[in-house]
Design a protein that fits this description.
alpha+beta, 4-stranded antiparallel sheet, 9 strands, 4 helices
C-alpha cells in the first residue's frame, strides 16, 4: 500500500480501509485511529526506562532477549511514526550530580540511588494522546524486565502549573 502524502489525513484505497495519518516525519499508518484522533496534533511523551542493572545485565535468557530486541526497537517506532529520539544511559557509577546553591557549584560522584532500579535510558515519542503513548511504551522491550514511565513533555506555550 502506498499512502497519499498531502498533509492531511487520507484514506487508503486498499480493501482494509486503513486510515493513513500524517505526522511531522511523514506518512504513518494507524489502523486503529479514529478520524477525531487524526485531527488532533500529536503530543510528545518521554518514556523513561527503569530497570535493575543486576537483572538486566545478569545474563538471564529473558534479559538477554530484551537486550537483543533493543537493537531494533527504535526501527519499529520509526515505522509506526511514533519515534522522535532515544538515548541509552551508562550505569550510575559513570554519572556525576551537579547542584548550585547560593551561586556555588558542587559536583559529586553518581546519583543518590535509594532503590535497586536505575534510569537506563529514554525514548521520546509522538502520540495522539496518553492512551496511545501507553500502548507505544508497552512495546519498549525493557518494559518486560523493568518499567517505563510515560510523561508528557512540557508545552511551553501553556501556563505554568500552579501548585
Amino acid at each position: 500500500m502506498t499512502p497519499l502524502v498531502v498533509g492531511r489525513p487520507t484514506f487508503s484505497t486498499t480493501p482494509s480501509e486503513k486510515i493513513v495519518a500524517l505526522s511531522k516525519i511523514g506518512a504513518v499508518e494507524r489502523p486503529h485511529a479514529s478520524l477525531r484522533e487524526l485531527e488532533k496534533p500529536d503530543m510528545q511523551y518521554a518514556c523513561l526506562i527503569y530497570y535493575d542493572p543486576k537483572l538486566m545485565f545478569g545474563g538471564a535468557p529473558e534479559a538477554n532477549a530484551v537486550l537483543d530486541e533493543c537493537q531494533t526497537s527504535d526501527e519499529g517506532l520509526k515505522e509506526t511514526g511514533h519515534f522522535v529520539s532515544s538515548v541509552a544511559l551508562e550505569l550510575p557509577d559513570e554519572a556525576m550530580t551537579v547542584t548550585v546553591r547560593d551561586g556555588q557549584m558542587s559536583a559529586v560522584d553518581g546519583p543518590f540511588i535509594e532503590t535497586r532500579e536505575m534510569l537506563g535510558g529514554l525514548v521520546v515519542i509522538e502520540a495522539v494522546d496518553l492512551n496511545e503513548a501507553l500502548q507505544v511504551a508497552a512495546r519498549i522491550p525493557q518494559a518486560r524486565v523493568g518499567s517505563v514511565e510515560v510523561r508528557p513533555l512540557v508545552d511551553f506555550s501553556k501556563p505554568r502549573p500552579e501548585l
